[in-house]
Specification:
It contains four helices and no strands. By secondary structure, it is mainly alpha-helical.
Length: about 100
Amino acid sequence: MNWDEQLIETCTETDGKVHPRTDHVLTGAKWMRDQLRTDEAVERVALVLIEQRGYYIGEGWPTNEDLSGGPAGDRDVEFKSAWMDSAREVITALLGED
């Protein structure tokens, strides 16, 4: 059962009538789930995940040099991309949606 179905079930009275404000609640709940998928939210999750792995994130994402790469390399870009993808997977798993 997805989030909307659970909400409708919760908002259904014992006589089978759905509460009249259910669509407002559904709209708000969808908005909140959408906020968890913004780039800003995904980045916050990714930074927490890498900090838990022992990376220092005081200034944001580790630099190429922090990752033992050269000043002109792409290791930092690849690192960020991979962790952003992982964070999106975590959020998708949490929401139980595609």
